[in-house]
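#dry-run=false #mode=assembly
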Amino acid sequence: MAISSASAGALLRHVRTGRARSRADLVALTGASRNTVSARVDQLIAANLLEEGGRGWSTGGRPPTILRFNSRAGCVLAVDLGATSVDVAVTDLSAQILATDGHRIDIAEGPVAVLAEADRLAQKVLAEAGLAPADVCAVGVGVPGPVEFSTGRPSHPPIMPGWHDYPIPSAFGRYGCPVYVDNDVNVMALGEMGIAGSMQDVLVVKVGTGIGCGVIVDGQVYRGAQGSAGDIGHIYVAQPDGRTVVCRCGNENCLEAIAGGGALLRDAVAAGMPVSTVREVVERAAHGDGQALELVRNAGRTIGTVLAALVNFFNPHRIVLTGGVAQAGVPLIAGIREAVYRRAMPLAARSLEITVSDAPDLSGRLGAALMAIEGFLAEDAVDQAVSR
Amino acid sequence: MAISSASAGALLRHVRTGRARSRADLVALTGASRNTVSARVDQLIAANLLEEGGRGWSTGGRPPTILRFNSRAGCVLAVDLGATSVDVAVTDLSAQILATDGHRIDIAEGPVAVLAEADRLAQKVLAEAGLAPADVCAVGVGVPGPVEFSTGRPSHPPIMPGWHDYPIPSAFGRYGCPVYVDNDVNVMALGEMGIAGSMQDVLVVKVGTGIGCGVIVDGQVYRGAQGSAGDIGHIYVAQPDGRTVVCRCGNENCLEAIAGGGALLRDAVAAGMPVSTVREVVERAAHGDGQALELVRNAGRTIGTVLAALVNFFNPHRIVLTGGVAQAGVPLIAGIREAVYRRAMPLAARSLEITVSDAPDLSGRLGAALMAIEGFLAEDAVDQAVSR
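#status=ok
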């Protein structure tokens, strides 16, 4: 076993993840001196992050005192902003939801109005959980567009008019704590990993109005050089019939212009289907309407062509589908599987799991909570907090 | 600054990478007790991996004794197997080449004959460097096909008949040390990173007879779920003219069937060019032959179409081109850049560097040496070695 760091943050992580249950475990795990470990554990107890209680089994000598992570040492706010909804939850430090509420909004109303609504919901759920603003240790926010992660400012978000460069963290200034903002797909990917508790390489593909992808390497969000990794909605897709579709980005034949929710609605209307929203197309497919089924399955085939290339390149353990169109379930996944198994290398495709999210409505909030908790309990942050 | 592990392996890494130059630095860096650090440093000195000498500047009190990594504590063998060549080098533990030699072979002669030749070269370079088999701490081997990294056995390698499942490490049993085997593209990617000394997200794309890609995440080789990450040669590419090309894998329109070296030669011959090898086509392009230039540039455009998708998905800092066809230089890279800048998202393409390898002949050996050194000096391995 590798001997690992003995910082306060590292010791806390060992207890949180169940690798250590006592000071003796921590000494064995880190190779640090008993004095060093004890001093840091005392700091963590003083900071209310660890608690002592009960006695474990002795392996000779005095039975060790059990250490526990105090997941109620504080709480985090999780804000899931969508194009037409805002959901807010307050969770404890193990991402257990204590209270949650949501509201319909229009993201195009702009940051001031929408974030005021988010803050109103935050105060409501905090009160419901019997907590005060001072209990909030961190805030996590997912937004439906690209974000500069280091500053929490949206960067030319196509469906969020008025939000470009808006300092989202400033809207949560009343809590006097760090605010982490990322795009909804990365946040949902974290949420999916949280639910699955996995350390694998995973793609979380959101098929909604647009198409995006959260890239998970070894259980962590992979962002790339400029933080734009996973931006698969504008990958070029050749059409078998030579058809050209102009995307809202100005380019031709982008994946989402052919197989996103907007494209699905456009094609359904063009085929004479009496629908006015993507949701209606998806519901028709879910109820077995032949025409809707074929449209959804075709979208799946197109998405699968792109995913087949990414499977060869990235060789993931799993692909999880989420977003409004993923609610269509079987026909979408069947189209995707058909294309992936036909075009990906057998070695990479053999044990690849392709599934629809179990909790699509929850993963945004859960991921935002996990992002906030990971920020608050990052080893450096804990080291600084306890040595103040 | 994050406080980090105080294992012997971690202490050695701090000294190797220049982060620490004395016991006092190591205490400050790890937070471990002075006694713990001193005991482990003594073990590392006893194992001949660290040496003490000279005195540093004092910042008050006794000036500290300087610690140095002893990169001549041992050597590693680096074996670079190609389809038609084997190159072997012996390097010290900082990947400095002490002696090297190569020979033309045909990989299809099979593992016994080819590895016997590799071993003969290994003994020759060891003797040339004045070293004995007992000095070899690890062996690194790059092979032109897929390998199960954990066992060092090729897995159905298409251009290596007779090599499937052959235990390559057994051929180096005489050295009584770990043998690490990986595919040539991953090994070359490590070599490129070694030369650049970078911790970035990088794609190293080999355009030879086939096309493959080494994926580097944060300075480390990324392998994926089954170790097949980077296998981009069989990604489907639609042809603008609707043409269908059957690949040697049996599928249609794989990237390498359209734009690899084999395809380049096929198209050159079909166009009436008096050539019989890819190298001749590449040389003609390098000398300004219009027809050859256009073929190479077209191959670049096709490769660029796939890379544009991967740039959106992976958002790398750099793409490095290597392999025989990359020797064509400007026309290939111009075709690739044209397609990438036309089809990748501006944010991801903006500061992306696309370059040809500076040392394509060396990166295989250097990468194999770095793989062996990283294995030998992995923190766990050092911890075990010094506590024996």
